[in-house]
Amino acid sequence: MLYLKKYFTEGLIQFTILLSLIGVRLDLDTYLNNQLPPLREIILGPSSAYTQTQFHNLRNTLDGYGIHPKSVDLDHFFTTRRLLNQVRSLDHLRVPSTELSAWLVHRDPETVVSATSQSGPSIALDNGGSLEDVNNSEASAMRGAGGASETTYSLSGEDSLGAVAPEDSQEQGERESSDDLSKEDIDLIDILWRQDIDLGAGREIWFGYSRSRRKKTKHLSTFFLPLGAQTSLSLQECLRLLEATFPFGEEPEVATVKFMLHYGLKLGRFFFFLIDMEVNNTAVNVTMNNDPNNNNASTTESATIGSFELPRSTLINQDVSLHQASLPSCSQDFPTLFNPELDSTGVQRPTLVRLSSSNSSNINSTFGATNLTGLFLPPPLNNTTNLTTTPVLPDPFSSLLEESMLDEISLLDLAMEEGFSQDQASQLEDELDSDSGLSLDSSHSPASPSNSETSCSSAASSSSTSATFSEEGAVGYSTDSEAATAEAEEGAVGGYQPEYSKLCRMSYQDPSQFHGIPQLENVNHNHTYNLPLASSYSERSQLSASCSKKGRDKQMQQMKLQPPQDCVDRQSSRDERRARAMDIPFSNDKIINLPVEEFNELLAKHHLNEDQLSLIRDIRRRGKNKMAAQNCRKRKLDTILKLEQGVQDLQREKAQLLKEKMEYCKCIRQTKQKVQSLSQELFAQLRDEEGRRYSASEYFLQYGPDGVLLLSRNMTTEQSNKTDKKQKDKKK
DNA sequence: AATCTTTGTCATCCA
DNA sequence: TTTGGATGACAAAGA
User: What is the domain count for chain A?
Assistant: First the structure.
């Protein structure tokens, strides 16, 4: 896998080198300055005016027309942005040497009318010897579908280069390029030649060079560039290699070779490149990749390629034409069918280009989609057939997915920080590709203001609860004046009340008793609401009913109107009344709150009968139990509040996990679709020695350590290994 | 008058 | 065994 990464990472570099070797130099900045300021902004980075609100402005920069931040295109932007930055960084790369390895995967010896796409600039390297024709119908259709934004980023056609003459899409014929080239075109080409070539995001760049124009044969072949080795190649060597790879030798007089460099988008950290080579006798003929019969492009966001239909979601898409994945055997890693159109966000890059012969137009009719499932997840038959001694390979897509989803997940993390409700999770699938985080309802985020409100509310609730206890305690049990009054009435000796306070505080402040019960560990055990008991339990406990709350004013009036003793009696608790009735010589407060030793000393000081002692013990017992009951109730309430909060947290966590699950599922689904499409296309291009296509009912593609294998369904494992195995990618 | 809440109390368990 | 905290259950009082 590491090798694979290396190769693809270096692919960009070598791709650039390849262009340089061939001599094509294109100054994209020129176009960017004059034609594509938004793209320039992407490549060059945001201007200072944008940097502050980079996130939003970058998005606007991408489309240039203010895509809604919630749009699903946003991740396209990020991916494209990242990709472009990396591409641009190639300007600063210094690759001392490289090896260009290319091998022909398929060569159609027949003269066919290709149905390749062309959305990028066409550069005739022979300066008039070839002509790149851009089918305007596609451009028109795409513009119709994608709006002005597409034209913004498309470097294709007359808008950017002015070197392409409009062509009838149905014609798709060969052109005498030089005849069609205007002087302006030629001049422009000359300029381009002298300029550095730069790759725009998702651009296709067609170029070619002419050697001879006598022959009228035309080849459209696809070969892959396993980019990665490190030997030096001169321009001549490169060309020789290309010629050696491509059937130049067989047809030395082939006039023009057209390379269609598919600059792939990024899948995770991988870049994918493809090169389509088309050889014309006279000129490079660029035709539409879209099915001419396809009318969906202008009405729907899809581009029909052959029998495949993929969404065309963004303007970038039209420029991104990766229709085949290379499986360089040189990597020696397990081959992987990957879809370059699947960028890190998992969004499909729509434009699939038919790069093969015309036969491939019926891919669907030849191969059902069922074949692909077997490709991706080999059926039992495959298992039996796949006896390539190699151990079970890890699912390459898992790794790729992991890679590709990193960025998206990071975005999701941002969104997560904003918080999602469970209800919002249902929207996620539709917004996975967007910066949904921006528009997320943050009301459920732990860090969100709303949630803060919730927390505050809970806290307030808790606080209010505490306050209620406290207040009730204060109101119901004592005020300082009341305590003083009570003590004065009962002749109690002061000086020990602070001790009671300490004792009461300390008795409930040890949280260790809740160890092991997380929900309870944070329960507030500061039962300071017991403090009022230290003053005058009896009076206060009784006053709680009549003096607390609304009754305080009434009680004060009653205190004025009634004899004090009557009021005290009426407000006294039963135990206090009993105590008075039994002539207990000290207050119930002392009875209840004195430490045992002092309590016993107090009892010893007074000569009390059994009834008195029994009442005192009952009073003490009930008093303590009363406080205990209050503490118990408070703890119960606190626990309930804690559990309530825990439920909310778990609900949020569940929603987040569900969202992530959906995102993963979507990504996997998209990847499978792309693999299916690529596999179909690959399969459709494979030919036997006689140029016939393989029947899907008889053959199937299978991964192997050396590449993608074409195996016969009827072959035994051993047979398949020995006789019927064909490697799509040959080792170089 | 019925219902709900608050509070006190009892019984019980447990440290 | 005593003391006291914890808690469920019940009842009284009040809203």
Answer: 2
